[in-house]
Amino acid sequence: MLIGELGRRTGVNTHQLRYYEAQGLLEADRGANGYREYDESAVLRVKQIRHLLGAGLSSEDIAYLLPCAVGEAPELPGCPELLAAMRARLRRLDEQMEQLARSRAALTTYVDTAERMGAENYPPFDGSDQEPVPA
Fold first, then answer.
1. Which residues constitute the signal peptide according to the record (predicted)?
2. Is 56 left (phi over 0), alpha (psi -120 to 50) or beta?
């Protein structure tokens, strides 16, 4: 099947499919006309990639895990190397969540302080003459 059909069958745009191929996550043969041609297994592979991306894994993590993936969800066998990679990603996510919690607490303190100081001491702010505060 051509890349457009693979995209329709998986709900993934062709730009993303090309990216998956560039990252070594998806393989395509080339027809005589130079077009990418995928076999039927590519549908399952793309669904596996989407699930693993949804779990917060990087394309590098997925390239490592994907050869062991079974089924659409996918299931991953509990071999030590795979477990180590997934645990490392889980630790990174935990660290990011802790940092976000600290940032949220600090911002909440600033908001509370500003509210206590009272908005009546300041002119109304419509934001039209200032740059937005970066997120």
1. none
2. left
C-alpha of 47 from chain center: 14
Domain boundaries, the chain: 1-77, 78-119
Q: What is the pLDDT of residues 83-134, one digit of tens each?
A: 887 888 889 999 999 999 999 999 999 999 888 887 666 666 666 665 655 5
Which parts of 1-135 are beta strand (E)? 29-30, 36-37
Does the domain at 1-77 match CATH 1.10.1660.10? Answer given as yes
Pairing mode of beta strands 29-30, 36-37:
antiparallel
Axis crossing angle, helix 3-10 with helix 41-54, rounded to the nearest 10:
50
- Dig out the tokens for 61 from the structure: 């993590």
